[in-house]
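INFO  loader      accepted 1 record
INFO  loader      residues=336
INFO  predictor   begin
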Amino acid sequence: MDSLTHVAIGACIGEAFFEKGFGKKAMLWGMLAQSIPDIDFLAGFWSTTPETLLAHRGFTHSILFGLLIVPVFALLADRVHRPHNITFRKWLWFFAIEVFTHLFIDAFNNYGIGWFEPFSHHRFSFNAIYVADPFFSIWPGIACVMLIALNSFHKGRTFWWRFGLILPAIYLLYCSFNKLQINHAIERQLVTQHIPKERYFTTPAPLQNWLWFAVSGNDDGYSVGYLSVFDKHDPVSFRFFPRNDSILNPFKENDDLNRLLQFSQQYYTVEKWHDTIVFNDLRFGQEIGWDNPDNKFVFHYYLNFPKSNDLVVQRGRFEGWNSKTISSLWKSIQGD
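INFO  predictor   done
INFO  writer      dumping tokens
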């Protein structure tokens, strides 16, 4: 999830735990605890782009990190607020729920999260919700604003923290249900169209949970397509992208390439744009791919021009968006 959503959820959990006057102080602790796993952004100040990609949602999003940081927060809060009648166990439970909620929610989008770092580099990803989904984030956001605005002892505070936690939880369950539906439909399509599925995934297209992006293939290449939860009859129109591994031969000993291969979890293709060798990570979708299936992928890394790869994950995510784009997205969501 995006950082603002984590902050809002952290504030709501803080209010839920303490209420009765202490809630606003707990909201601040909750905001901080929900944000601490994302401290890995600091790696970007001294690391190369591929190193930063692997560092993000790596160790600071691991179970081990959570187990280490929770007692640190508990000891700090216990000392800062003395004298008080809050047990140390309650502090521990509070910060554990804050930190591990962050780690749990982040696993639902497509970036991947290293729960078992540093012992295993495997990234977990449920691919059930877009990283910035306004239909998920709006509820804790509204609740957070209301909790800040209301008096510390206002009777309505209980309603607002419940509003900010229960509604996004229901929406997350709904997204997971959509994921199961889409996977079932895509698997049928892959069999019907004789598309290899040695590796495949589905993930939501930007900013919603009704139009989904699907990728399936093997070492030869990948077929990509879009399917709405409201589609009933029409077959998915897949577009094949060859993997082109041979283009990588001059870069076989390149450390950046090896990190990109690890990061992509094998969902990649390679292209040559004039004098530029481009590494595409397919997990992040295409630029307006539902409107033009030939559009380039959002994540494209210039292998022979490494200094030109800032913000590579979301490069061009909203390039070319306008009223026509939004209209075509809405039409694709509606299905057949």
